[in-house]
Design brief:
The structure is a homodimer of 157-residue chains. The first copy, chain A, is an alpha/beta fold and 157 residues long. The first copy, chain A, has one domain: Alpha/beta knot. In chain A, 40% of the residues lie in helices and 20% in strands. The radius of gyration of chain A is 15 Å and the shape is globular. Chain A starts with a strand and ends in an 8-residue tail after the last helix. The interface between A and B is medium-sized, with 30 and 30 residues.
Chain lengths: 157, 157
Amino acid sequence: MKIIWMMIGKTDFEYVEKGVDEYLKRLKKYVPVELMVIPDVKTGAKPNADLLKEKEADAILPRIKDTDHVILLDERGKQYSSVGFAEWINEQINYSPANLVFIIGGAYGFSERVYQRAKSKMSLSSLTFSHQLVRVVFAEQLYRAFTIIKGESYHHE
Amino acid sequence: MKIIWMMIGKTDFEYVEKGVDEYLKRLKKYVPVELMVIPDVKTGAKPNADLLKEKEADAILPRIKDTDHVILLDERGKQYSSVGFAEWINEQINYSPANLVFIIGGAYGFSERVYQRAKSKMSLSSLTFSHQLVRVVFAEQLYRAFTIIKGESYHHE
């Protein structure tokens, strides 16, 4: 079992890149992680949200294997506590050999086709974060989850 | 009216500093913002959470004026949507000349004395974020709130 983390578009901000690197480096001590950065899709001069989401779906879906367990990071998803999220990950690790594929979409969210392929949705907050900042927040949360699973002192209740 | 943003301890990570700088620079086009970084408190070799929180309170409380409206960033606080948070800030701006003082505590949260002085508590997520990462998340959210108030295109519903 490994964690595959898919995201749309390159990282625009140096702080996002540094933040993600920081937590991924730590996370890799606990679990194999594969990063898949899907190149930004072009839809012409005027951004067209629907077309963009469909083109992104065309890039996302072929990268998913039949056995993968797909979790979308989505505003309408389930909101966990950090301990709850760690417990959920731990259950997946213990009961299923499937890879966990977490996907962070583009600025406009996901196509309906991607929602249909996903098994779960999770939300990091009732607030909206930029799809860039979400990367750092999610990286820290994934790292935090594994420190909780391993009983380490990073997380204080 | 201005926004005062108080936080405990220096920023440990370059990515946090860069992220906060990025959003503060943009935010200052909309509203005066004053940053108060309260130096880390020492409690001896072994960390003592209660003593730490009391010493932090000793540093925080004298910096607050009687007229200030104090909002703590706290896990048990109210969870807003980004639009809800923007509306709340806009109400404060329109109906009260008081400064808004947002405080991000240390790794162990706040002393009871600080809770008593605060008027409101807000939570950025049901997940726990590191007290370092919270700074970037909050900076982006404050910036997002002002783009919503001003009707700019940064935030997509």
